[in-house]
Amino acid sequence: MNKLQDWPEPIVRVQSLSDSGMPIIPERYVKPPLERPSINSTISSDVNIPIVDLAGLYGDDHALRATILDQISVACREWGFFQVINHGVSPKLMDRARELWRQFFNLPMEVKQAYANTPKTYEGYGSRLGVKKGAILDWSDYYFLHYLPLALKDYKKWPTIPSDCREVLDEYGKQLVELCGRLMKVLSINLGLGEEQLQNALGGENVGVCLRVNFYPKCPQPDLTLGLSSHSDPGGMTLLLPDNHVPGLQVRKDKNWITVKPAPHAFIVNIGDQIQVLSNATYKSVEHRVIVNSSKDRVSLAFFYNPKSDIPIEPMKELVTPDRPPLYQAMTFDEYRLFIRTRGPSGKSQVESLKSPR
Ligand code: OGA
Ligand code: NI
């Protein structure tokens, strides 16, 4: 029954493995050959995901605004991923948020262990996603916490060190929720809907919002493993604040893996499975993964903007036509997220499994 109550095996902190200086990684982290980073990886190409400058989105220049909307429309259709700059979130706040998490992960292990999480809610300090016994694991640790709904926000599950943690994280959450709201309007208009409709389909004010901070320790054999296995994000939309020094995020473009080159103080925006479903696959969530390296740790903050968790999510009726029947069956996000929490990251198999029988 209670298969989400506890981990199937004792938790090993990847950071401890890395710090031990062992020259080879344990077998549990060795990926099958076809999943290893060298396969179809285009690490040093000039290709990058689109960068969209949001300055002008609210100005009087209607032509400029139309251009920005169009750039986002193309990015959503062709990539499912883009970066935004001049997005309105304070660059100082972004730097401080990333820095405080670096400080947190650099605390002594005993301090961090006080926040150890369980699969029941995933909140706190964790080292695996999924509870499949014997699973091959990813080379990363993380910290997970809720912002919204307020009923799930629990300061007891947030770190208290560094001392400005709560204050910085609260402000970070507030500014990112605003940015997500603005982007929802853009996506809604781009889908040919009224400006509020997409947000309303996610539950209006009652969206769910959470943060997953990823810590990818340096790895003695980066060619054999991944920091985070290929997956699409299960929720609505994600705003990722990447490491400012160390690349690692790769996005699937057709058969290739493109390494994202972050612009200074940009957020990386990506479409999650729930917007794929709501948009009846006009927009698709795109697979991505993280590679690690042997010389530097990497930190990233993934901010997830999700539907209210107990409402059915299905293709919006405006986007269903005789030519384009509903591609997915309705499911609540509570049900949907159990899948990834049980099985761990597994490409796009989850959203594929929602396809309507025909
Ligand atoms: C995630 C994710 C990418 C990164 O947390 O879902 O895709 O660069 N993170 O850490
Ligand atoms: Ni992701």
TrEMBL record:
UniProt record similarity statement = Belongs to the iron/ascorbate-dependent oxidoreductase family.
User: Any idea which UniProt keywords this protein has?
Assistant: Dioxygenase, Iron, Jasmonic acid signaling pathway, Metal-binding, Oxidoreductase, Plant defense, Vitamin C
Organism domain of life: Eukaryota
Q: Which reaction does it catalyse?
A: jasmonate + 2-oxoglutarate + O2 = (1R,2R)-12-hydroxyjasmonate + succinate + CO2
Keyword NAD set for record: no
Q: Which InterPro entries match?
A: DIOX_N (IPR026992), IPNS-like_FE2OG_OXY (IPR044861), IPNS-like_sf (IPR027443), Oxoglu/Fe-dep_dioxygenase_dom (IPR005123), Plant_2OG-oxidoreductases (IPR050295)
Give the UniProt record's GO annotations in the biological process aspect. Answer: defense response; negative regulation of defense response to insect; regulation of defense response to fungus; regulation of jasmonic acid mediated signaling pathway
- Name-wise, this protein is Fe2OG dioxygenase domain-containing protein
Q: Which organism is it from?
A: Dovyalis caffra
- PROSITE patterns assigned to the protein according to its UniProt record, in alphabetical order: FE2OG_OXY
The cofactors it requires, by name, are: Fe(2+); L-ascorbate
- GO-annotated molecular function: dioxygenase activity; jasmonic acid hydrolase; L-ascorbic acid binding; metal ion binding
User: Domain Fe2OG dioxygenase, which positions?
Assistant: 206-307
